[in-house]
Amino acid sequence: MKEQLYRWRNKQIRQHTAVVNGDIAPTLVLKNATYLNVFLKQWIKANIWIYEDRIVYVGDDMPDYVSDRTEIKDCSGQYLVPGYVEPHVHPFQLYNPHSFVEYASKRGTTTFVNDNLMLLLLLQKKKAFSLLDDSQTLPVSMFWSARFDSQSELRDEEELINDETVLDWLSHDAVMHGGELTNWPEILNEDDRGLYWMQETKRHRKVVEGHFPGASIKTLAKLKLLGADGDHESISGDEVYNRVSLGYYTGLRYSSIRPDLPNILDDLKAYDGEYYDYLFFTTDGSTPSFYEQGVIDRCIEIAIEKGVKPEEAYAMATINSARYFGIDHRLGSIAPGRIAHINFLEAPDQPEPTAVLAKGEWITFDGYAFQRLTPDIEWLRYGFSELNIDWSLREDDLIFSSPIGMKMLNDVILKPYPVKSESQSQQLPEEDDTAYVMLMDRDGEWRISSFLKGYTKSIGGLASSYSNTGDIVLIGKNTDDMNMAFERMKALGGAIVVVNDGDIIYELPLPLQGVMSDLPMDELMAKERELKTLIKEHGYSYSDPVYTLLFLSSTHLPYIRITPKGLMDIKKKEILFPSVMR
């Protein structure tokens, strides 16, 4: 059934109490279970009764009445913990929402709060809400955010993100929070519309999730006054402690672009106080192959390795996030009334589960619930089709002339640099790491081009329909190879394609609006590893070339970005050179 604001109807609740009374048989009994009580932070021996998707009893008794449809599982020698919560998911990092949660659930993460940015950019609202509603039938708990900005400079942003859209999203029962606030400097200074949306979020009794990297104590205090509740951008123990001291719920991040968790936990050893109740884990939308080591289970493992008590580590992965979002009456614990999300462990210090129960369905035990309940997703029903690009690059598109280029300082930070000479040639020399770069409207209406230092020394052409705005990114040192990569990307209906010396040397089809793959996670991980290896062999010296593609147009990062409106100075909020209509 769909997970509405009130998950169970009165008739069902009466059935649940009837199970405790012995009038109705439970559907599943976990006997001789040693489970973590996250309220007491103690391991307790008990029998756990479940009816369909809800825990109805936890205690010493066995049910008086069972039927031939009651499954009884002896949990002797196992340790049970609540299903893990991933409170900050970006489910479009080449994978899609379904493939990610299918993979993560097998590692014990059974609740997800997802970014809605790509749904805003790529789908009609009615189609997006159909996806939200239908995702509630999955054997996991799926929730979403309501974004207040595009994280870039769109030419038509007012049409996509406006009062009606934001308020409709905030009103949806599957939406848990407003944000993340990547546009917080504007809201802090003059953006009354953003402040209004924050206040509407509070009126709906939902939380406001921040994005406050490097914010000072005074800035954090002012953002608290505006209504911010949490933030996941701390990169040190000092920043975590400062946020908690001001009343923020604070995410500890372990992601492909910011694997800060181990260092933060080391830093926190210097602080006294009961701050763990306000901490949670997030992998913050990592690229696919990063998840080979796990999802939230890996975060718990790192915490235990760093000396955090297992009981605290599991609470950080479960009840803390549930309390943050105000849904701890529904999940985050093994207790009466909660959704039956339960992980089965071999030992308290081994968070990767041997079996997973999600909404009362076995995920990794006696059959796989995803394959049985949702074997296929009809993506076209929601508007996720292949890209239909009916235009081609013109000769003048591939003439690059810009006095300012972008130099990579790391995977995602770009600094402006002066271009000493304009290039009218088809080939850049391979003795340095300068490449052509272009962002093109997916409908072919505009383009903006420049130069990019640090991405490659020798790739002839890379075309990517995967980007933060859903537009087309072209990078390379040879315009013929760039054009060939574009044509192959177009033929695939969206893809990342790499061409060198006239040969296609890599392609990853992205049939879901040109942004997401429909491959299972294990196959996608292999394809992404192949791409990373290839790009690094051609001169990329950082860790995550896929994230570089995503964030080329992201204006929440310094110092210069290539956006749909043009080449932008982030600090001054000025367009240095506008995009050109074709």
Automatic annotation (TrEMBL):
Source organism (scientific name): Alkalibacillus salilacus
InterPro entries: Adenine_deam_C, Amidohydro-rel, Metal-dep_hydrolase_composite, Metal_Hydrolase
PANTHER family: ADENINE DEAMINASE YERA-RELATED, N-ACETYLGLUCOSAMINE-6-PHOSPHATE DEACETYLASE
Protein name: adenine deaminase
Hydrolase is among the record's keywords: yes
Residue stretches making up the Amidohydrolase-related domain: 79-362
Molecular functions (GO terms): adenine deaminase activity
EC number: 3.5.4.2
Domain of life, per lineage: Bacteria
Protein family: Belongs to the metallo-dependent hydrolases superfamily. Adenine deaminase family.
Presence of keyword Hydrolase: yes
Keyword terms: Hydrolase
Pfam families hit by this protein: Adenine_deam_C, Amidohydro_1
Adenine deaminase C-terminal domain sequence ranges: 422-573
Recorded catalytic activity of this chain's protein: adenine + H2O + H(+) = hypoxanthine + NH4(+)
